[in-house]
Every structure is written in structure tokens, then in C-alpha cells.
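Homework-ish question, so no full write-ups if that breaks the rules, but can someone show me the predicted structure for this set?
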Amino acid sequence: MSESTPSQITRIQEVKKLLREERLPHIWCPGCGIGIVLKCYVEAVLKSGIPVDKHVIVSGIGCSGRAAGYVRIDGYHVTHGRPIPFAVGLKTVRPELEVTVFSGDGDLTAIGGNHFIHAIRRNDDINVILVNNFNYGMTGGQYSSTTPLGARTLTSPYGFIEGSFNIPYMAAVLGANFVARWTPLHDRELTKAILEMFKVDGFAIVEVITPCILYAEMNGFTTLDWMKDFRDRCIIDHDADLSKANLTMDPNKPIILGNFVRRDKPSYQTRYRELLRKVKG
Amino acid sequence: MSEGKLIKPGVYFMRGNDACVEGALVAGCRFFAGYPITPSNEISARMSRRMPEVGGYFIQFEDEIGSIVAVLGAAAGGVKAMTATSGPGFSLMMETIGLSAMLELPAVIVDIQRAGPSTGIPTLVGQGDIMQAKWGSHGDYEVVAYLPNSPQEMFDMMIDAFNTAWKYRVPVMVLSDQMVGQMIEKVVVRPYEEIKLFERVKPTVPPEEYLPFDSKYLVPPMAIAGEGYRVHMTGLTHDERGYPTTRHDVSTKLIERLVKKIRENEKEIGRWEEHLCEDAKLIVLAYGITSRSAKRAIKDARSEGLKVGLFRPITAWPFPHWGLNKLVESGAEVLVIEINMGQMVHVVRETVNTKVHFMPWAPGAVPPPETIVKKIKEVYSK
Amino acid sequence: MVESTDAKLITSHTGRRTPLNRNMRLRPIGEPRISSELCKGCGFCIEFCPKDVLEFSDKINSQGYQYPRIKPGKEEECIACGMCERICPEFAIEVYEVKKVPIEVEA
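A: Not a homework solution, just the prediction itself:
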């Protein structure tokens, strides 16, 4: 019996070669989507044409932040909210490295919010994979800056009444060079988006809406329902009006996915090197 | 070192903060991230102009936290990096100081202390950050902190700071103050051959055998990003491979090594200056700008026949208690004078075997020599 | 090949203007191999298999998770699309192509 793996798909054996297999199974819950997102990142690293030794992953605190510990590449698991400035410092002094931030919605847009907006303002040349699971999962499921209105979480037992960020809209308005949104169900598109991010000189971000078992159970469904919801509710529209791309609890509102923004403004690091050339001669 | 646009050896008349910048560049610093805060602004302003001249990187970050985190990112890339701030910014950096200690990524933090607490008096001197430098972050770790008292020392101690940080892989603070930072004095830049720079110890084994936190070393050789070592560094308590752990035996090994790095080398790292202490019955302990005023006070007191001397710690941490203990063997007592309500005095009381007197001084001014003489007389007995 | 200018003669001799095997395909038959100790019983693979080949087995692994198996009798239905391998968050499934069999499809 001849054995081969289907040629057109991700070969998990290849992906696993780049994982710290001795640490598997990972700590994420049954039905958590982060494992799939991590797989897409590793796949993109392998396909990027950039030597694996030049890839660096920087993560923050939270479930998504644990991703750095499972990949066998240079990885830095730093304090809450701070992977972006760490990545900026590293990329600035080592421009040949491909630096990717892999972290969650609260880490990057709540406690890390200031760094988020300023890194986009500066157009720092980093890639950001923002895993959005609508809550702070690691600490038990508190609400975060992306929790939809009305949702039940550990700290909004009567339903969330604040407001939530529309991340692709924010990133686009602030001027990011690349903005995309996908889900773990759309793993091929996600891998392609990450590959595209590597090519961008400037700030590139992909928001990945990811199922979380805590959030799901507190709101009366399962992560399997959530994945099925991706299948039923997602619309791919690369030219969507991002001001309408906010996420809500409304089951009739489509979830808009796509590679929304692609600009070519030079990154801060590129402009600084220009400055160096002028000053130093 | 590549000379290029570095300050040439010679004699200069420089402001402390400016000497700090030039010292850092001579030490090999090629990344500065900072946030505007009085009275350290001269440092970032000069850095923004000088860094591109030497081919280094300057970023004014959106806040102090981003600044110090970016410093760690640059260190992870193998580049000597620093930030400069004052009290309020220093407070913001505390969590990250713990991260620097845990990841063992070297960072140099210059704190031009000002009157506090809180916003305090941004333009006037304070010495209220001494305890915070060592104990500001949560958990157990050790730092090294230098106490320059002149622009000359601000130049020299930047070189010491970078050497210490990269040798021991710890966060190192330079605790200056507004007066020392903004005074203008003679600064001598020695010939480069006389200035020794320490470069990081690189791994000697191939990546498959390399353990980033190998406990057979007190200070493990440091691998940087992008060289094939595939290090994993995490702020979580970790084992020698860098992987998170909750095991107590592993945690013990790590924490003990982190503190031993400095504690077992304290005699090498700790420094002080003695002035007229040989026959002193009362030793004044003062640092930073206070030591300048105290030196004058001691001269005046001596001229009145009082046997007083000055013990000036040059490192706040590790505190050079063995140096002071030697001097008080004869029975001399100590008078601690600091521009705060009692910080280093606690360490003196804990580690030095003699009677310790204390003259607190609220921040915002330097205690003038006359005041110090008055206190000396009050305390002087026998 | 008979050379003839008589069109009718050529047609009747060669018989076909379409390839003999135009309606034939090689259909892969695959085998998902599941690392039971890595599985956490999330059920994604079962849900997203386009041929409905997987179901929960009656076994649990050492962590207490129920892991999937190929539905008995449906072994030949797997088309080696690899969806289960891609959708598994635990890196627990590897799909192997066992063989390719010819099948007839509609024109």
C-alpha cells in the first residue's frame, strides 16, 4: 500500500517539525481555536521563503500568548500588553528578522491599547496576529474590549453594557499598511494573509475571530456551534465598508471577513534608516 | 570600539545629562527609547541628535512602559540599549524591571531623581527612588544601582552600567538626581584604550545543546534572536530550557540563581568612596549631590576639631556594607543624610554594626553645608 | 491508422471523438490517523468532514477525552481531502492517502 499525504493540504507532519512537540498536548481547552491559528502561522513561516531562524514570535499574556511557547523558533513571552513595543525594539535594531506578534484582544487593545495605536501611527514594521475571542479567557472569562454588547461574561453577569472595538476599522483608520480578518475555519485564507503580512514593510495585522469555550458556555452555545456559525454567517468581502464590520451578538448580522487594506507607506524603520543614511553619510 | 562620531578623549565642560549620553555612546549603546520627563529631557534630546550620528536608533515612545519594553526588545536582538526617566516614569517601569530580571535581558535605566512623591517638583532635586530601585518590582531579583555625584561620574558610570548589565544580565540603574544631571562641570574623557568594554558572553555550544538558562552557570551565556538558537524566553517561572514550570524545585533553582548572580559577586560590584575616615569618630554617609554638600560640611567640621569623615556609596545596590563595617570597627558612629524621609538609612541600620543617626531632608533642595555641620555637632559625642 | 478520404469510413473505423476515459476519475481513498492521546474531543473533525466519515468512538484517552474513529463500514468513503487534519486544533490527525480508485462520473 503506497502512502502519501494529500498534496494540496497542510501537512501536519511538516508543521509539527517546527513545534516543541515535547510540550504537546498544549494547554488550550477542548474546542479552543487557537491551535488552528498557531498551525496557520507555522505553515506560513514554513512557506515564507524566509529562513526559519530569522522568524521571531513575540507574545503577551493570555491564552493566545502561550503560543510562543509551542513553536520552535526564537520566541519571547513578555508581560501583559507589551509584545508590541518589545517587537518594535527588536525589529528596529535587527531589520533582517521577521517579527510577528501573536496575542489576544485584551492584551493588544486593552492594556496594550496605547502601544497598538502608536505602533500603527508610526507604521512599525511588525506583523500582528490578533486572536479575538471576545473575553479574557485565561483568567476565567471576564469581558474585554471586544466583547459584543449584551454578552454574558464573568464580569458582566447581566450582559455587557460598555462598547466594543471594531478592530479592522480602527487599524485601517489609524493607517495600518495591511488589515485583514479571518477565522480558524478559513485556515487557508488565514495562512495566505499571514504570508502576505510577511511581505509588508510596515504595520500589518490580521484579526482572527476564534472560538473560546468559556465565552461560548456563558452565552449558551458550544465552540462547535461557533465554528458552524463561521460556516453559515461569514461573508468574504475584501472591499467591505469597515465601519460596518463591527461584531455583535445578532445571529442575523453577517460576519465580514477579508483582506481589507493594503497600503505601501514606508515603515518607521525604513524611514529611520533613510535618516541614518542622511545623517551618518 | 568604532570611533566614528564618538566624543574624542579630552577635557570638556559638560552638563551631567549630556555627559551621560556621551558615556553611553562610548559604552556601545546603540538604542535609546524614552519618554519626555523633566529633568531628564536633555538626555533624550541629545540622544535624538547623536544616535543617528553614530549609526544607532532613537525612538521617542508613547510612554515609559513602551520605552523600557523596547529596550528589552533591542537587548534581545543583541544591541546595548537604555532609557532615561525620572521618578514618575521610573514607577511606571517597575513591572518591566521584573521582566528584565526574569528574562535576564540587560537594560540600563537612568533615573534623574526629582522631588516626589507623585508629580512633586519636576525641576528640583530628590533622592526618593533608592528603595524603589531595588524593591520596586514584585518578587525576588537583584539589580545594580549606581549613584553618580558629578557630571564626570555620569560619564564614567554609564560605561560601568553597561558593563555590569551585560556581564551579569541584570537591569542596572543609574540613580542620578536633578542637580547632578543639570550641573555643568569638568568631564575628562580618557583615551579609549583605557576604557574597557564588556561584550556579552556568547553560547559556546551548538543550538541543540544550548540551554538558555543553564544553571551550571551563575550567568548563562546569552543567545540573541535570529542566530539559530531558537530560544524561548518567558516571564513565567521557567526551567533551564526556558519552558514554563510550576515545580517548586525548579523555581527554587531559578530564583536562587537570579539573586546569587549579584549577591555572590557583591564585593566585586559594590563600590564606595572614603574621605577622612581613618580617624573619624562620626562617619557621614551621603550620596549624589548630598555628598558634595557633606564634603564641605566635613571640611568645616574638621576645622573646628571634630573628627568626621565621609562614606559615599557609589553603588546603592549592592550596598557596600562591608566597606562601612570596616570603618566602624573602631567604634565610629554613622550619620546618614539623604534627600528623603529615610531610605538608605534602613539598609545601613540592617547591615552596619554601629549606632546610626539620621538626618532626613525633604526633597526640593540640597541640605546646605551649615545645616549638616549643625547636625554633626548635635550628634557628635565622645 | 487507415488513410482514407472517405469520412464515413474513418468515423466507423476509429469510432470515438471523445477520450475513452473522459468520464473516469481517480478518486483518492484516505485514512485519517488519529493520535488519541492528543485529542480533546472537541468534535470539529466530525462536524466538518464532507463525507461524514468520522464519529466519536466509545473509548476515552488517559485525560478522559473521547476521541473519534472512522465509522465502521465507511473506511472507503474518506476522500483524503484533509479537512479533519486542517481543522483539528490539537495537531492530532494526519491524513494518509491509501490508494486511488477509478470511478465513473456524469458527463
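Now go work out the reasoning yourself. Hint: The interface with chain B takes residues 20, 23, 53-54, 56, 58, 68-69, 72-79, 82, 84-94, 96-97, 114-115, 117-118, 122, 268, 272, 275-276, 279-280 of chain A (CB under 8 Å).
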